[in-house]
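Action item from last week, closing it out:
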Amino acid sequence: MKRKNNRKKAITLKDKKILIIGILLVGLLMIGVFITLMVQPPVNHFTIGNGKNLKGIDVSNHQGKIDWQALPHDKINYVFIKATEGTTYNDPFFKGNWQNASEYNFLKGAYHFFTVGTSGADQAKAFIAQVPKEKNVLTPVIDLELIGENREEIITEIRVFVNKIEEHYEVKPIFYINKNTFHTYVEGVFNDYMIWYADYADEPALDESIWTFWQYTESGLIEGIKGPVDFNIFRGNKQDLESIIIQ
């Protein structure tokens, strides 16, 4: 009887050792996978192509005071800067960011956050008052993120805003959109305008033939900026990018 009991104990200890070794191996495998993902992140479009898909950022008051001298030129080909929102809000960091972008030789452009339910003409007036008419800057941007109740009225106000901007700066503005605002306001209505598409999936839902810029994350980290910042790619090379600079 004693011998039989001892055999049971021996088998139990052996099984425990095998289980512990198995758990350790699985743990080591998971650590290896984690390290691999950290060192070699998933490939995005901006890593593909010979000189194509140029990277850039967009900034606003959310980034606070930026150390422009520390921003790396080899990682940033352009910067979009928030200027205004609605009819009354001027981004408090716009003037400083606008001046510093030029001082540190970054290609820059300004954008307006469009609010629904307010006058497109008044919003255009606010943007024009804040953003100087300059050469060698990127085309202005209308940022469409909000959905309102009356689609036709909102489209009318968007059209008024766009026409005012086009008349003043003598270029067609870029439409910044997400999936909802694209299908609600832009698709089939504003077909002759460049699209800057916000989509944080591994691949943008819109076909590449539709968008010119793709904002692929809102959680980017880069030298010179404390905290997260939006990262974008431009679908083209430097010569293509230069073609949308105001001359």
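Closing note: The longest helix spans residues 2-39.
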